[in-house]
Each structure stands twice: as C-alpha cells, then as structure tokens.
Design goal:
alpha+beta; Glutaredoxin; 4 strands
C-alpha cells in the first residue's frame, strides 16, 4: 500500500492523526508546516482551508480529523479500529458527536460566546453542561466509547478530551480522566507523542 503523505504541525490536532497513523501501522512521510506556510499556494492545493492536518493516500486527499480517523480505520482494516459495518451505530454516533457538539461547545466557550436561551437550539448542542453530561454518561458505560473494544472513535475522542483536560477547555471530571487514561494507555499513543515532542524539542534548539 502506498506511503501516506502527512501534513502536520506538532502544536496542532495533527498529534491525534499521528497517533492514528501509528495505531494502524501505516508507512507515512510527515511534512511539518509552520502556521505561516499553511497559507502557501502549494499547500492550499492540498487543503484550501490552509490548516493541518491533512493526508494524501493513493491520490486521495483527506482533511478534518474525524474524517481522517475514519478513513484510516477503513483503509487499514487489519488494525481492527473500525467495528463491523452492522455494528457501527455507536462508533459513528460518538465519533461525530466529538467532532460536532463537543468541538463547537469547546470553541464557543474558549471564545467567550454566551448564548441566550433562544439561541441554544440554533447552535445544535444546547450548552456546555448538556454536552458534557451527555458525553460523561456515554464514556462511563463501557471501557471504550463503543464498548469493550478500542476503535478509531477512541483516538479522536480520547485526544479531544486529553487536550481539553490539559488546557482547561473541558471540565475536569473523574469519568473523563479515567476514560482518557484508558484510551491513551497504548504504545501507539506513546510513540506518536514522543515523535511530536522530539520535533518540538529540535525546533527549540
């Protein structure tokens, strides 16, 4: 299978995609972009949004972290990171819950957006408490978000919650901390983090 070109920055959500690439055991070539260079004409041909991460695989360009996680899980089925097609209800539900309501609520909170009561239905997630309460109930039910088996949804959600707990954008709840500990207790996570941290250390020398 063709090597994957992986566009990233170690201070970005590219860290979760590095984790996913390590989970599936893909051969990949990382291309490190500074934030200023993401707006170059060359890179905008890859991602017109001028942001990372992005991958190019077999001529296919994939952007958006949840989409990349799902794509890699399907492209490398031997890694076992996507449930069988007839067992993907929770997988899709929580993968895109994390990419939709959770992401939106975190961004609005970080920007100091205060919603009026009549606006809560418009944004599609209600408010942060509703999002976190819903997610807490889900992650507290099983070892992983879809049950007893780790999946690509846990890479995305685990990374999101890990970032949120570290940087204070997600309320610290023991249920979340326990889930993140389970989700990140993996060799692929440790290897990916070490590789990104090494790039950061080299850049600061």
């Amino acid at each position: 299978m063709a090597e994957i070109k992986f566009y990233t920055n170690p201070r970005s959500r590219g860290r979760m995609i590095r984790w996913m690439l390590e989970e599936v055991g893909a051969d990949y070539d990382p291309v490190y972009l500074e934030y200023g260079s993401m707006n170059s004409e060359e890179y905008r041909r890859i991602n017109p949004m001028a942001k990372v991460p992005a991958i190019v695989h077999d001529g296919n360009i994939v952007t958006e972290c949840a989409a990349i996680c799902a794509y890699l899980a399907d492209s490398f089925p031997d890694a076992g990171l996507a449930p069988a097609p007839d067992a993907r209800a929770d997988y899709y539900r929580w993968l895109f819950f994390a990419a939709g309501p959770l992401e939106s609520a975190i961004v609005n909170q970080a920007l100091g957006v205060e919603l009026k009561a009549e606006q809560k239905g418009f944004v599609g997630y209600g408010d942060m408490d509703r999002v976190l309460d819903t997610l807490e109930a889900a992650v507290g039910q099983h070892t992983f978000i879809t049950g007893s088996t780790f999946s690509a949804a846990d890479v995305y959600l685990g990374a999101q919650l890990n970032f949120g707990l570290q940087f204070g954008t997600v309320e610290k709840r023991k249920t979340f901390e326990d889930y993140v500990q389970r989700a990140t207790d993996r060799e692929a996570f440790r290897k990916a983090a070490a590789l990104d941290d090494a790039v950061l250390a080299q850049a600061s020398d």
